[in-house]
Design goal:
Length: 305
């Protein structure tokens, strides 16, 4: 049997979201219809096009070939723009994950600028600090800290950012300014919850000052910044976030200047979509444009000033 083009487009929607329900909403169908269309496509092709994965569905080898054909159909239909004009190819939903700080300071402005030129684009950003997934059903882009070990995906180094020790001026006025790493251990640390930290590259304070006790811990880096500003202890913070607050002082920059890389992980099938490629390029450009801030280049101007 020859596959129905409509069934191929349904498969394409499921491959992008990883979920029948999301694909159904995007296509204006119900879950049952999507399931029936996928079953009809599998019957026509003589095999499974989708397989269960953590958090959703992944395309099989047969399904990947069908998705490639579906993309051609989508492109051909999209070329029939109103008034003979070619439609904007940078449209549709792009789903990505990234750390809290990167999402707010790099991804959000990059996407905002891109959407000004391409209003048909919609980007969903899920904030999470974790290793790159091996099964990334429904995700187009992941931004992670540290070099990822992935298969069936492409990894690209975006840039680097620096973390340092910071304290509020009010805290230092009461507790004094630590002048050595040894003196730093008399203070409490504001940082990630150790037992829940999934990224080995982020264990620097426990490695550099293992005897420093945890004071306030959180899975969210914005909590780290605000807790440090409130005087909860000494925070190990991304410079590009901490340096925006004049009430924070960087401490011992020569001893504590951890440099970590941002990596971007993309599925090859996602990269074929103009919208995903455009978002990926916008993230590269935004990261490059903010290189000095990410690296905490204004250390001398802000340290103990």
């Amino acid at each position: 049997m020859n596959p129905n083009p409509d069934d191929l487009l349904v498969l394409l929607a499921v491959s992008r979201s990883g979920k029948f329900t999301t694909a159904a909403q995007e296509l204006g169908l119900n879950h049952t219809t999507v399931s029936r269309r996928i079953a009809a496509l599998e019957k026509a092709l003589g095999g499974r096009v989708l397989a269960r994965a953590a958090g959703g569905w992944e395309v099989t080898e047969l399904g990947a070939g069908a998705v490639t054909v579906a993309e051609r159909i989508e492109a051909a239909v999209g070329a029939l723009g109103p008034g003979g004009r070619a439609p904007d190819p940078i449209t549709g939903v792009v789903r990505m994950t990234a750390t809290d700080g990167f999402s707010a300071y790099i991804a959000a402005p990059a996407v905002a600028r891109l959407r000004n030129a391409h209003p048909g684009l919609s980007v969903e950003i899920i904030t999470v600090t974790r290793r790159a997934l091996q099964q990334r059903s429904g995700l187009d882009i992941e931004v992670v800290v540290g070099e990822p070990q992935v298969h069936r995906a492409e990894a690209h180094r975006l840039g680097e950012y620096r973390l340092g020790m910071y304290a509020s001026r009010g805290y230092l006025a009461v507790h004094g300014i630590p002048g050595t790493a040894e003196e730093l251990t008399r203070h409490q640390l504001v940082y990630f919850v150790d037992s829940m930290l999934q990224v080995d590259d982020l264990d620097a304070p426990r490695r550099l000052v293992p005897s420093m006790r945890d004071g306030l811990s959180s899975t969210n880096v914005f909590v780290h910044v605000e807790a440090t500003r409130a005087g909860a202890g000494i925070g190990f913070l991304p410079c590009f976030m901490a340096d925006q607050h004049n009430d924070l002082v960087r401490l011992l920059p020569a001893e504590f200047a951890e440099l970590l890389p941002y990596w971007m992980v993309l599925r090859p099938d996602s990269l074929r979509r103009p919208a995903v490629a455009a978002v990926a390029q916008a993230l590269r450009e935004q990261t490059a444009a903010h290189r000095e801030a990410l690296l905490g280049q204004d250390v001398t101007a802000r340290t103990n000033s």
